[in-house]
Amino acid sequence: MFRKTRRYLTIIRVFTKYNLFFLLYRDIKRNYISNSKCTCSLDLENRKGAAKLRDAFVELGPTFIKLGQMLSRRPDIIPKAYIIELEKLQDKVKPLDFDAMRPSFETGCECNALGNKSQSTGIDYGAKDILDIFDEFDTNPIASASIGQVYKAVLNGKKVAVKICRPGLIDTVNLDLDIIEDIKPLIVKIVGLGSHFDVDAFLREFREVLTTELDYRIEARNMMRFYDNFKDDENVLIPKVYTDYSRESILVMEFMEGVQVKDLKDVDQDIRTHYAKLIANSYLKQVYIDGFYHADPHGGNILVKDGKIAFIDFGAVGKLDNELKRDMLNLFYGVYSGNVDIASDAFLKIGKLRKEDVDIGRFRRDMDELIAEQKYAIGERQSDNYAKIALKYNMSLPSEFSTLEKALLLIESVCFELDPKFNLLEGAKPVILKAIRTRYSPTKAFEVFQLEGDRYLEIFRNIPAGVNDVIETIRGYRFEKLQKSTYNVKRYNLIDRLTKNIFLIAIAVISTYLITLGENSTIILGTIGFLASLFLSVLIFQK
C-alpha cells in the first residue's frame, strides 16, 4: 500500500510539474481546422502541451512510454498535434551498468528455459557466471531501452544477440497498471471519448502489450512463428532462437548482419527499388496471407544485405482473425481497385455497423474521397483518414485495425524513402490475388467442410425423412384439392413425381455448393431454406 501511495504521489508531482491536468482538458477537447503538419497557430500552441505530455511520459518510465506509443497509433482518441509529438517517443534510455543487469541472469532456475525444458537441457544461469557460459560476451550494450538491453556475444562459435530484461521492472509496471485502472473514469472524462469507444478493451490491449514485452518467451515464440512463415523464402531472413538459452528475462538469438534501411544511402536506385518491392511484398504476405505481422516495422527494425532483407525485434506483433483478415483484404482491394462499394461495405463490417445505421450515400462519398486521396496522394499520405470517418459516423474501430493501419503507414514510409516513385497499392496486386486464390481454393473449402463435416452429415442424414414428410403433406393437400376440382388425377400423379425429382436435384446441387463454398456455409444454408420455401409455395398455391 505504501509503494502504491508513493507512486501516486510521483505521478501527481510529474503531471503538476508539466501542468498537464489543465492542458489535456483544454487541448484534447478543442475542435478546429488543422493542416497535416499541425503548423497553424492553434496547432503550434496545442503541440506545446503535447510535448509536455511526451516529456512527462519519459520521466515516469516504461509503462507510460508504452502508453504514449499506443496512443500515437490512435488518432480516433487524441488530436493530430498529440499524435505527432507522441510518435517521437523513442524507447531509448541511458544504459544500466552490466553489474546492475546481473540479477536478471542469476534469479530463477533452469526449468524456466523456453518451452519448459527439463533441467537436463535448460541452462542454469545462476550456476555459474554468465561470462563463462558464452565464448565471448561484450558487456557494453549495443542497444538500450526502457524494458531491457541487448548485448553482442559468441556462442558455440556463432555470433548471437542477447536481450536481457531490466531487473525488478515487473513490479513497477504492475503498480502503474493498477493506478491507471483506478483513474480510468478520470481519463474518460478528460479525453471525452465517444460512446462507442471501448476504454476497457483499450486498457486490456495495453496490459497485453506490456505483458508481451516483459516476457521474452513470447517474443521468442513470435520469432519462431515468423521463421516458419518465411522458411521457403530465401530473400527474407528471420533470426533463429536459441531455446536452451532463452527464458522469461533472457532471449538469445542469431545475430543478424546487415545495414538498417534507414541508414541505406549512396546505393544505386535499382537496388533500392528492389529492396522496396521485397519489403512491401513480404509485409503484405504477413498481413493478408499469414494474418500475423510485425507491428513496428520502422527503418531500424529492417536490415538489408546482399539483396536480402531481415526483420528484427519481434516484441510487438499484430494478429488478425479470419473474419477481420477477410474484411481488411476486401477494404484494401476496394481501395486498390477504386471500387467504392466494396471498400464501403468492408469498412462498415470492420466498424460493426450496418448500412441502415448510416447515411449510406454520404458515407460512400466520404469513402470515395478517401480512395482518391490514397490513390492520387500529393505529398505525404494522411494517417488518420480512416479514424476521421470512424469519428464522423461514431464507429468503433477494433484496436487491431488501428495497429495495422499504423504499421502499413510505416512500411509505406520505409519503401517511399527507398524509392520516391513507390506505390504500395500498385505493388500489392500479386499478393492480393494470391490471398483471394487461397481463400477460395478447393483445398481451403475442403478443409472447412472437413471441420464442419459432422454438422453437415447430421443435416443430410435428416433430409430424406424431412423431404418425405413434406412430400406426403403436399400429396395429401393436393389430392384433397383435386377431389374438389376438375383437375385430372393423372396431372396430380405427374406433379407428384416431378416434386420428388426436383427435390432430389435441389439437394444434389446444394450439396455441391456446400462442398465448394465451405466457409460460406451460413449463407448457403440460408439459401436452402429460401429455395425450399419458394418451391413449396409454388406447389401449394398452384392452381
Short description:
It contains 24 helices and eleven strands. With 543 residues, it is an alpha+beta fold.
Structure characterization notes:
This protein is an alpha+beta fold and 543 residues long. It folds into four domains: 2-91 and 176-211, no CATH class; 92-175 and 214-255, Phosphorylase Kinase, domain 1 (2-Layer Sandwich), CATH 3.30.200; 257-439, no CATH class; 446-541, no CATH class. The chain is 60% helix and 8% strand. The protein has 24 helices and eleven strands. The chain has helices at residues 2-17, 20-28, 41-60, 62-71, 80-86, 98-101, 103-106, 130-133, 169-182, 184-191, 199-214, 216-229, 269-290, 322-337, 340-350, 360-375, 385-392, 399-418, 424-427, 429-439, 442-451, 453-483, 489-516, 521-541; strands at 136-137, 143-144, 148-155, 158-165, 236-237, 250-254, 259-260, 292-294, 302-305, 308-311, 317-319. Strands 1, 2, 3, 4 and 6 form a five-stranded antiparallel sheet that branches. α13 (269-290) packs antiparallel against α18 and α14 (322-337) packs antiparallel against α15 (340-350). The longest helix has 31 residues, at 453-483.
